Amino acid sequence: MLQTNHTPAFQTSKNPPILWHCLGTEETLKRLQTSSQNGLSQREAGKRTRQYGYNEIQAKKKKSIVSRFFEQFKDFMIIILIIAAFISFFVSYLEGKPDLVDPIIIFAIIILNAVMGVIQEAKAEKSLEALKKMSAPTAQVLRDKKEITIPSRELVPGDIVFLETGNYVPSDVRLLDSINLKVDESSLTGESHPVEKNALISLNPDTIVGDRLNLAFATGIVTYGRAKAVVTETGMNTEVGHIAQMIMDDDIPQTPLQKRLAQTGKILGIAALLICIVIFILGTIQGRPPFDMFMTSVSLAVAAIPEGLPAIVTIMLSLGVQRMAKKQAVIRRLPAVETLGSATVICSDKTGTLTQNKMTVTNITSYQKEESLNSSFGAALLSLAAQCNDAKLQIHKKNITAIGEPTETALALAAYKQSIDKTKLDLLQKRVCEIPFDSNRKMMTTVHQYQQELSYIGLPNNFTYISITKGAPDVLLRYCNKVYHNGTIINLTKKHISQILNQNQTLTRQALRVIAVGFKPITELNANADETILKKELEQELVFAGLIGMMDPPRPEVRNAVLTCKSAGIKPVMITGDHIQTACAIGKALDIITKDCEALSGEAIDKLSSHELCQKVNQYGVFARVSPEHKVRLVKAFQQNGNIVAMTGDGVNDAPALKSADIGCAMGITGTDVAKNAADMILEDDNFATIVSAVSEGRGIYENIKKAIHFLLSSNIGEIMTIFVAILFKLPTPLVAVQLLWVNLVTDSLPAVSLGVDPVGKDIMKRPPVPPDKGIFADGLWLNIIIQGLMIGSLALLAYVLGCQVLPESSLLLGRTMCFGVLSLSQLFHSFNVRSEHSIFKIGLLSNNRLVMSFIICTILQISVISIPSLARIFNVIPLLPMQWIIVMILSIMPIFIVELQKRASK
C-alpha cells in the first residue's frame, strides 16, 4: 500500500495551509496545476498518487492482541492481586490442603479486567473504520479530457470532479461551477439543514468550516443541484481526515472510579505488606514459632486486600448495564456507568439530540397577525405551499413520511396534518409548468390548473390557472402588489408592507426559517415560452398570501430532562454548528440559558487562548458555529476546571469530542457509526431524557460501590484487629490461616455483591454530583470504617476470650471456634448497616431481597462449617453447644444496635 504524505497539497510542512476558500477559481486551478477543461492526465494522476497517497482514512499501526493483553497487567492493584493469588495457594499448600478456588477466582478477575481493557482500546480503530465506510465508493472525474468513473480512493489533488444530487462528496473540493447546489454537511458541521453552495464567491481567511460556501467537504451529501469542482485535499488532509487524526491522537481518559480504585488498591496493598511485616516481627520477638507467624501474617495480609473488590465492582456495573439497557441506554464500556453518575457537565449537540432533526412548521401569519395552523387561513396558505413543492409523500399504514429537501418536506407534512394531501392536490390541480428554485433569485414558482371546488383559497372560478411562488420574504415582497385577505384580494399598501416586514422580523428573532408564499390567478398561459418571458408573466404583480415559520423543534421531553440535570447539580451545555441566533432560541426554550450573553460563537472561541477559554467557559451554556476542533477544546476546558464531562452527539463532527470526554453518549437512531464507535454509551431512542435515567443509575451504582467498599474494609479491619490485639497481648493466635481465608472469601463476597443491587435512593437526583477530586473515603467514611472495624474485632476478641478463659468448657479450640463464628456472622449482620446513613428500620430491613438471601446462605454455610464434624476438622473448629451458640448469636447481632446508636448520635 502507498504511504500517504500528510502534508497538504502543494505545500511543505513548514508553510501554513492554503486557505482554498479565499482563492478564486482561476487562482485555485493555478495553485493545483490543473485545467478545468482537460483535467489531469492518467500519468500525472499516478505521479500525484505516489506523492500524496490514496484518498482514504488511515489508521494507526495495530498492536497484536497478545501485546495489548499483557499491557493490561501493569496496574498496581493487578500486581497485588497476582501476588495474593500465589500467596493464597502457597499458604493452603503449606497447610497440607492445596486450595485452588481462591487463586482461580483472583486470576479470573485479572483476565476479565485485561479482556475489558483490550476491548476498550479497539474503539478508536472501529471509529476510523466507520469513517472509511462513510467515504464515497466512486467519483465522476475528468481525466485526459474524458469524463470517467474511478474509485474515490484514487482521487488526487487537482482532479476535476462532477457532483450531482444524491452523490457523496468524495474529498474536499473547491467549487468551479455550481447550479442550485445544496449539500448536507450535518454529519461534519452539525448544521441542521443543507447548505446552499456558491462557486463564485471568495471568503475571508477566518471563515469557519460551516460557512465556507465555495467549498464542499468529504462525507457531505448533495441534496439538490449539481456542480463541477476541483479536488483540493485528499485522505488525512481533508476535514474528516483531521477528525480521524484527533480520534487517533486522543487517549481515553481514566474514569473517576478507575482512579479512585487504583488509589485505594495502592493504599491497601502497601498497608497489607506493612501489616504482614509488623505482625511477623512482633510475633517473632515474643518467641512464637517463626513458621506459624509467617503463615498467620501472610494469611492476614491476603485477608487485608479485598481481592474480590474488582470482581464485585465488575458485577455491580454489569447489573447496572442490564438495567440501563432496558431503559434504552446501551453501555459499551463498564466504568462509563459510574462516570456518568459523577458527571458535572453534559455537553450536548443540538441537532438530533436536543432537537428532532426534522424541520417543522410552527408558525403562520397573514399580513395582519399570527394565525392558527388549523384555521381556514392556515389551510389556504399550507395548500399553496404544498403545491409549490417538489417533496413526495409516502404513506404506509399510519406512518407518513416525506422525501425531499427539508424545508419542502416540512411544508408537505404540515399540510397533511391539516388534512391537505399534497399527492391528491398534485393529481387534481396538475402542474403545467415551473420555474425551479434558484439561489440567486431565492424563489420557486409552479403553475397549476385551477379548480375552485378543490382549492382552499376560496377564489371564484373565473380563471384557468394559478401560479404559486414561494421564497425569501424580502425578495418575494418586491414582486407583490396585492394581498390575500379573508378570501378576497386587496391592494397592497405601504402599511401592509410594514406589517409584513414586522411579522417577518418577529419570526426571525425566534430563530425560525421564514418562507413567504404568494400566488397569481392566470387566465391564459403560454407554458412553452422562454423562461425569461415566464418570469415576467408569472412572477410580477403577485398576491401576497402569508408567511410560514419553521424550525427544527426541541424534543418535548428534553426541557424536563434539562431541569432535572440542573437540580442534580449538572450543568447542561449546548454545542452546535448552527447560527448563534438559532442556538440561543433553542437554548432559551429548553432553559439551558436565560440570556443571549450566555452564548459564545466559534469565531469568538478562536480569539481565546486555551487559558482564557478555561477561565471563561463556565460563563456560557450555548456554543454556536463551532468546528470539531472547537468541541474538543471546549470539552478539555471544562475538564481543566475540574469537571467530569459527558458529551452527547450523533455526527462525525462529534466523534473526537465524544472520545475526549469522560463519557461519550452517541445517538442510536440518527448517530453515525463513527460517533457510536467513539462513544461509551449509545442512546437507542435518541432521547436526551434517557441520560437522566443513566445519570441516576450511575449515581446509584457509585453509592453501592461505596457501600461494598465500606463493608469489605470494615470487615477486613475487624479481622486485622482480632489478630493484632491478640498478638500484642501475647495471647495465642485467635484464628488460623484457613479460617481467615474462609471469612475473607465466603462471608465477605456474597453480601458485598448484594449491596451492589441496593435500590437507588429517592433523593439521588437532588444531590450535587460527587466532585472528581473527592476520594471514596471522604465525609468521614474512613472514620466510620475504622470504628466499625474495631467494633467487629472487639466482638470477635470478646468471643475468643469467653471461649478460652471464661466459659466452663473453655479451651483454645472453643475460643477459636467462637471467635471464628462471631467474626463471620457479625460481618453478615453488619452488611445491613452500610446500606444507608439513615436507620435501616426506616429504609426497610428486608427491602433488599438479594442481601437477605445472601445473609441466609452465608449463615447456613458458617453454621455448617462449625456444626458438621467432617467440615469442622478441616477448619480446626469444634461443634458448639446451644448456650455457646446463643452467646455467639448475641455478639454477632450487636453491630446492628451499636451502629444504630452511632447513626443517631451523629445527627
Automatic annotation (TrEMBL):
In terms of one coarse class, where is the protein primarily found? membrane
Gene Ontology molecular-function annotations: ATP binding; ATP hydrolysis activity; metal ion binding; P-type calcium transporter activity
| Gene Ontology cellular component terms for the protein in this record | plasma membrane
Which of the seven top EC classes does this enzyme belong to? translocase
Entry keyword annotation includes Kinase: no
- Give the way it sits in the membrane: Multi-pass membrane protein
What are the GO BP annotations of this UniProt entry? export from cell
Q: Which residues cross the membrane?
A: 76-94, 100-119, 267-286, 298-319, 708-729, 741-760, 781-801, 813-830, 851-871, 883-901
Name of protein = P-type Ca(2+) transporter
Native source organism of the sequence:
[Clostridium] polysaccharolyticum
**Taxonomy-wise, where does this protein's organism fall, top ranks first?**
Bacteria, Bacillati, Bacillota, Clostridia, Lachnospirales
